[in-house]
Amino acid sequence: MSRLYAIGEVLIDFIPLQKGCALKDVTAFERAPGGAPANVAAAVAKYGAPSSLLTKLGSDAFGDFLLEELQNAGVDTQHVLRTSEANTGLAFVSLKENGERDFSFYRNPSADLLLSETEIDGNLFEAGDILHFGSVDLVDSPMKQAHRKAIHAVKAAGGLVSFDPNVRLPLWSDAESCRRAILEFLPKAHLIKISDEELEFITGISDIETAISSLFRGDVQAVVYTRGSEGAELYTKNGRYTAPGFKVQAQDTTGAGDAFVGGFLFHLLKREAAPDRLTDILDNYHEEILHFANASGALTTTNKGAISALPDTAAIEALMKSQQLTS
Ligand code: ADP
Questions:
Q1: Is the CB of 254 under 6 A from ligand 1?
Q2: For residue 131, what are the β-bridge partners?
Q3: Residue 271: which CATH number?
Q4: How many domains does the structure of the chain reveal?
């Protein structure tokens, strides 16, 4: 089967044991592996497709922990390098009473940002493979160049590129630098995942349809627009497909978007969706792909954390069956 390569951030989220206090008042935290590309890689591995992460960890205890967690999740870590030049990235989180999150990131820089283009093997990828990336590692760094090289190499091999902008403003010096980096990389991707909260920020357009149309630039063939508990919409040049969300008791929405993307990409890998077949596959199989991805995202909200909250395929199928949606 084709392989997912996720490139970019892996870090430890320190989740507060108390809810409803400011970060400065939290006295105890629990560690959880995180970083959007790592979460997506773990989801794809869990659903049964080959999955690798391209990143760098510090030679510290937190790096040891993350490496073990990725391996336990079934992710291939042979391209996860180590360095003593920087520490593994950390993020401390506080949960407000209304469930919103505040972050304090420790990456000055973190080890992942030091992965350089010379450390990306240009012959790694094969036709049908998918490269997935986000925006938080597109700050000026060796890692930004590594993204450029990996994108170029996977395309040259006939693979697909998937981008989830995943806006995290505290990691940027200002909002404009974040927007600029996203707009630079967006046209290089074949598939874009964007959430309702990000669409207007990135496009500067308030009308949803117009904003989504504006994302079809460069190589973009499809846009998935996720709407939290409301589910998701998929746009291709031929149509717009809607899939309602599943009704679940949400506890913690961390990683829902990544679990959604993991479920979506798993189906594309299964169908060996090279760029010249992507639109056809999405037009023909949108229903089963969106339902699976929605169920994956929904079930992830029913447990704490991201990787640790990922459901297995049996749980996804049971949810789809219970709410009368077949895979
Ligand atoms: P992100 O986490 O990237 O901000 P969303 O919040 O839109 O993205 O969530 C991604 C997907 O996860 C949704 O499209 C949906 O399938 C699922 N999801 C998220 N929150 C819920 C929820 N409260 N109930 C059911 N499904 C959810």
A1: no
A2: 5, 161
A3: 3.40.1190.20
A4: 1
Cβ of residue 245 lying under 6 Å from some atom of ligand 1:
yes
CA neighbours closer than 13 Å in the CB half-sphere of residue 224? 33
Within a domain: 26: no
Supply the Cα-derived Rg of the chain in whole angstroms: 18
pLDDT at residue 327 is higher than 80: no
Q: Is position 107 within any domain?
A: no
User: Would you say the CB of residue 257 lies under 6 angstroms from ligand 1?
Assistant: yes
Nearest CA to ligand 1 atom 2: 257
Print the domain residue range for 64.
4-8+36-87+112-322
Q: Distance, CA 230 to ligand 1 centroid (Å)? A: 8
Pair 327, 266: CB distance under 8 Å: no
21 lies in some domain: no
Give the pLDDT of residue 99: 59
Is there a domain that residue 309 lies in?
yes
- Under DSSP, the state recorded for 311 is P
Tens-digit pLDDT profile for residues 286-315: 999 999 999 999 999 999 888 999 999 999
Pocket test for ligand 1, best of 197, 230, 260 (most atoms within 8 A of CB): 260
